[in-house]
């Protein structure tokens, strides 16, 4: 999979740097087993309007429209909770240079306070100054660990690559916790109650650096898109035996709703 967002994950007394999975995430680093950054690798261009609720954040992450005035993203993408007017949210266009894109500034940030203590539970909310009048995407109401998921982002399309101008997408299968946490993969680093793995154990398709915070989605039984995951971390991008690791949104629907109410 691709390099993922870069964030410090605390494991006991050791600090390990992790990157977001997939082809679309963060900044490049040396291609070592400790690299964890995501972007969408092995993907194709998304069509205009195909995923109207995805947004790009100026710090180099992705996000999704939880409501018209609140963005759901990853905790590792934000600097902490409080008043924050430094983030620009871009929405409404797959081309980040499009003249039709919508840009709005942030006003407040809520970082899940458990993220720094658990090294998991990687979610945050950003309040914006004015509504974005586009469709929103609801969180999955229950765990859905079957079939395939859709990932997307403006992150790198290869490990160590740069941000993309156009939104990319890919399809990845669910990977069970036993396989993902196996000795030839993450060896127990994945937190089952909070995280979900998706990707190909053979590698080749993933999120990557610059994709952090973006949504992993699927259609529910009614044919409507729901958000299953948030791009969180991984070792490199699209590497063999290292699928992307995503925040499992269904585990935090109540906590996210309660936090949104405070904004």
TrEMBL record:
Alphabetical list of CDD domains matching this protein: Tryp_SPc
The Peptidase S1 domain, residue ranges: 40-261
Domain of life: Bacteria
Molecular function terms, GO-annotated: serine-type endopeptidase activity
UniProt cross-references to SUPFAM superfamilies, sorted A to Z: Trypsin-like serine proteases (SSF50494)
Signal peptide: 1-33
UniProt record, GO biological process: proteolysis
Name used for this protein in its record: Trypsin
Keywords: Disulfide bond, Hydrolase, Protease, Serine protease, Signal
